[in-house]
Amino acid sequence: MTTIFEKIRELETIPSYSKHEQFVQGIINAIEERIIAQGAALPSINVLIKELGFARETIMKGYRELISRGIVESKNRQGYFVANEDTEQTLKVALLMYLIDSFQEQFYRNLRHELGPNVHIDVFFHHGNITMFETMLHMIKGKYGVYVVSPIPHPKTKHLLELLPINKFIMFDRYEPMKGEFNYVSQEFEQSTYNILAELAETIRTFDELIFFHVPGSLDPVEIIKAFKRFTKDFKINSRIINEYEPGSVEKGKVYFTLDNSEIWKILKDCEVKQLQPGVDIGILSHNDEVVKEIIAGGITTYSADFSLMGRRVAQAILKKEKVQEIIPTVLIRRKSL
């Protein structure tokens, strides 16, 4: 019966192949010819050194490449295993996101398109739950060539992210500090929110009060709350923070600032009932832009990072294997609502 070692040795007859290429292609050939199947254990580094006479670094480099392509996975203290019989793929990416809303969808769609058909992406969701976040990270580590993760603001996050190989890790969306140099393509919340509110201050002053909806303990970035409080103090704006919008409570002379789309729709519905015109009788400011906000009620004023650009920049960093540390600019998009 043909062995993995024989499949690797067969390639010694190809002069153009380096020992690294012999090793990688030999393992691939063994999988394609069903000599070894998905889930099966591969020889240890020491066994391969003994059988093939290759340098330790050559074998380790070969295994690293096979892991990055999603063909092989490494399990702590157990060794290397066949992870996937699809040997045509060049790279396997783990994408760990909050959830699938319209903004994360923009990110994913552009990431997927930019990476192209030969890169495999597995998508996971943590829903802002630290226990689920930890479970997902333990589940995916050692099985992918690149890990693209949207972190949770939590004391355990830094430690959990350090379980991943730092050279294969890209943080996206929110930014959480970690030890040493690491890759990220993120948005910034506090100073950008303050700047946007300052730009809108003259218009906000034409109304009686600025109301911000925030549920304590929610996933809303705390930096936005800090910016709101600092802005209203610095600019002496009459303001309130309340937990949620109560249906039927819309009032003339108020500016409503919300991160929750469902509250916008409730406010607009009540405006129709009370015959109030957004941008005239009340103001509305929303975080994160999307197509529907261009159209509804003559247009909702938003401020947002470009999630499409974020997806493209992460993909480019993956494909070019380049270092990336980038904050995507936050842009105010003024429409009729404010």
Automatic annotation (TrEMBL):
<keyword id="KW-0804">Transcription</keyword>
<dbReference type="InterPro" id="IPR036388">
    <property type="entry name" value="WH-like_DNA-bd_sf"/>
</dbReference>
<dbReference type="InterPro" id="IPR036390">
    <property type="entry name" value="WH_DNA-bd_sf"/>
</dbReference>
<feature type="domain" description="HTH gntR-type">
    <location>
        <begin position="17"/>
        <end position="85"/>
    </location>
</feature>
<dbReference type="InterPro" id="IPR000524">
    <property type="entry name" value="Tscrpt_reg_HTH_GntR"/>
</dbReference>
<protein>
    <submittedName>
        <fullName>GntR family transcriptional regulator</fullName>
    </submittedName>
</protein>
<keyword id="KW-0805">Transcription regulation</keyword>
<dbReference type="Pfam" id="PF00392">
    <property type="entry name" value="GntR"/>
</dbReference>
<keyword id="KW-0238">DNA-binding</keyword>
<dbReference type="InterPro" id="IPR028082">
    <property type="entry name" value="Peripla_BP_I"/>
</dbReference>
